[in-house]
Specification:
- There is one protein chain.
- 49% of the residues lie in helices and 19% in strands.
- The protein has 145 residues and is α/β, with parallel strands linked by helices.
- The protein has a single domain, classed as Glutaredoxin (3-Layer(aba) Sandwich).
Length: 145
């Protein structure tokens, strides 16, 4: 138990240390404001992939991502330029549809969709800024193959 607490404390300190100076934030569209079909239309018209953050309000790792990685200025710059970012509350009715359709069973889960709406990649858990940007680049490479 002590080892687990130490590991969690280390992770929190590590994530905070990796976070860049805050300034620019990721521009997330929210499911409460716009439906997924409209997000896909926007992605298609702008020829951008969709980055979907499926979260739960009670989820500690989800909150950590909001405070660290998603608040990182380099992450925000990259994702704002290259993706349509979309936040989905898994506990709302429309969110439950996404959870069932894409078999989300852990939070946070990140789904990457092509501009045409095809699921290209999925990630789960906490990611430091650099690793999330690397995964985004890897995912964009999958789309080109």
């Amino acid at each position: 138990m002590i080892f687990l607490k130490s590991k969690i404390t280390f992770l929190l300190i590590f994530m905070a240390g990796l976070s860049q100076v805050r300034g620019q934030q990721m521009n997330f569209l929210k499911m409460q404001e716009i439906g997924f079909e409209d997000v896909l239309k926007k992605a298609k018209s702008e020829n951008k992939m969709v980055f979907m953050d499926v979260y739960a309000v009670w989820c500690g790792p989800c909150k950590l991502m909001d405070k660290t990685t998603f608040s990182d200025s380099l992450v925000a710059k990259k994702f704002n330029a290259e993706f349509i970012s979309y936040k989905v509350n898994a506990e709302d009715v429309p969110g439950r549809v996404i959870v069932q359709k894409y078999m989300v069973n852990a939070f946070p889960t990140y789904l990457f969709f092509s501009p045409a709406g095809e699921l290209v990649n999925r990630l789960e858990g906490v990611f430091p800024p650099k690793l999330l940007m690397d995964e985004a680049d890897y995912t964009k490479g999958l789309l080109k193959k």
